[in-house]
Amino acid sequence: MDLNKLREQLIIDEGQVNEIYNDHLGYATFGIGHLILEGDPEYGLEVGTPVSEDRVIACFEKDVEIVIGDCKKLH
After folding, report:
1. Which end is more exposed in the chain, N or C (fewer Cβ atoms within 10 Å of the end residue's Cβ)?
2. Helical spans, DSSP H, in the chain
């Protein structure tokens, strides 16, 4: 799988925000829909806090890895 192509398409479809924002359910999020979890260094930071492009990409790649792993478990 080409992660760069997947990332580019998701940015077209969903957008990318390089700061913390609340998603439509009110959860702290950034990047390409990365839900901020308790273990993330961004946990507890204020909405509007900038997040680097490198961090956004790293979280995207980790999120994809998790989803692929979950799919393999279901298969």
Report:
1. C
2. 3-14, 53-74
Nearest to 51 by CA among 8, 21, 22, 75: 21
How many whole angstroms separate alpha carbon 29 and alpha carbon 16?
11
Q: Rounded to 5 degrees, what angle do the CA atoms 50, 54, 56 make?
A: 60
Q: How confident is the model at residue 37 (pLDDT cuts 50, 70, 90)?
A: very high
pTM: 0.90
φ/ψ of 2, rounded to 5, equals: -90, 100
- Residue 74, both tokens: 């279901």
Instruction: Give every CB contact of residue 61 below 8 A, 6+ residues apart in sequence.
Output: 3
Q: Confidence band (pLDDT; 50, 70, 90) for 75?
A: confident
| Enclosing H/E stretch for 21 | strand 17-22
